[in-house]
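Dock nicotinamide-adenine-dinucleotide; give full complex structure.
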Amino acid sequence: MKEIHHWIDGKEYKGTSGRFADVFNPATGEVQARVSLATKAELDDAIARAAKAQVEWGATNPQRRARVMMEFVRLINRDMDKMAEALSAEHGKTFPDAKGDIQRGLEVIEFCIGAPHLLKGEFTDSAGPGIDMYSLRQPLGVVAGITPFNFPAMIPLWKIGPALASGNAMILKPSERDPSVPLMLAELLKEAGLPDGVLQVVNGDKDSVDAILDSEVIQAVGFVGSTPIAQYIYERAAATGKRAQCFGGAKNHMIIMPDADLDKAADALIGAGYGAAGERCMAISVAVPVGEKTADALIEKLVPRIEKLKVGPWTAGDDVDYGPVVTKAAKENVLRLVQSGVDQGAELVVDGRDFSLQGYEDGFFVGPHLFDRVTPEMDIYKTEIFGPVLSTVRADSYEDALKLAMDHEYGNGTAIFTRDGDTARDFANRINIGMVGINVPIPVPLAYHTFGGWKKSGFGDLNQHGPDAFRFYTRTKTVTARWPSGIKEGGEFNFKAMD
Ligand code: NAD
């Protein structure tokens, strides 16, 4: 059985815990590898080594650090196909989607090439007589990234790029379900010139996460995953004085106004609802048509499109629309929630429960589902399903649709489809959700903007990537300097205004 270990001090480190997690091939259901789960002692050791390496890395000038990022970009592009294959094999997403996963991470590394500009401090000449004031952005030291299974390249890259370009060392604790790509990225960074120890990839589970949270050396934690864990990490990190940004789950609504182009809206819902088997934090899982006529017409357009979806393993070709979900437990959870929707009175318009794929009967495939007449009290509405299940909640008016999305506990992304600029503008202004699409179903901001949800989708006050990431991974020191000519006359003990 293939074993996957850790990356410490620029080379593979074989874990000694004797504890492993299974890594599945989601298309066949077979265990294809096992990943070592680190002990607290191994984690503490990796942190101590990272702290040593950080001293020189933090003192390296920002331009040189940026050059490592520049070379990293070239190497990721060189190995794109190899990494996408490894990603699809462990995650199950299609090959083009795996490349997209890497690409959206790569764009943040490209952005990080400009880090020297973002790390420039501020300077006020002559803030007082003979006094200058300036602010420095200094690295935090050792920081940690804890990442989910659903974007095993993109989210580690969102963490690694800004953290390292800012002069920190990082402990990356990727998802134990698809650990290979983060290790490949660490290898490429070494090839790109990153000094050993600056990035340590430690595989593990709750024990490793708790060791990170309790470490007195780690200064900041960037987490992405489900909401209960995000909240747990945020609270425990804060209790030990760490900076924390923790991004959680989602239930993204798409509002379809009566004036929308319904064919475009239906196409958008298919990609955003079923792409990556619904395992995206920016997936649309709730369609909110406004008015009965819009709802009836939308359902009529969705059904034939859903029936045409091609579900299969990534090896079946680039025309596969989506693959399996990540584990048997994930599949069972989706089917349990679908059953609850039926039991609680939602109308199951497209039923994917009996879906099976010849030759892949033990794979974790889930057929596409479409619910109509879902209500806010139902579990399928309240819960993040993270599977190929789209729920339709019919709204009587724009205000009802807006209120529905606003009242949901999650606030990651949302979209509105309309031809009316006034409605779109009102929606963007009033909605209490972090990322908004106007006739765009998955509004993932580009690398130079920031990414982050509101409400239970994000804990902490700075977003991922964009300028916020550089604020998160640095702390500001402000220096007030005077080189007075009259120092010989003796010290001053009063707190003086700058006049
Ligand atoms: P998860 O919460 O199960 O795991 C995320 C990370 O936390 C993993 O590294 C895992 O090892 C660790 N972890 C798991 N259980 C833990 C525990 N009890 N204590 C400490 N650490 C623990 O999430 P997942 O299933 O890997 O990812 C899917 C979730 O991530 C979905 O809810 C999705 O919406 C969310 N997500 C959010 C965003 C965002 O930006 N808001 C992006 C991607 C995914």
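Observed: Residues 146-151, 173, 175-176, 205-206, 209, 224-226, 229, 247-250, 281, 384, 386, 412, 453, 457 surround nicotinamide-adenine-dinucleotide (CB under 6 Å).
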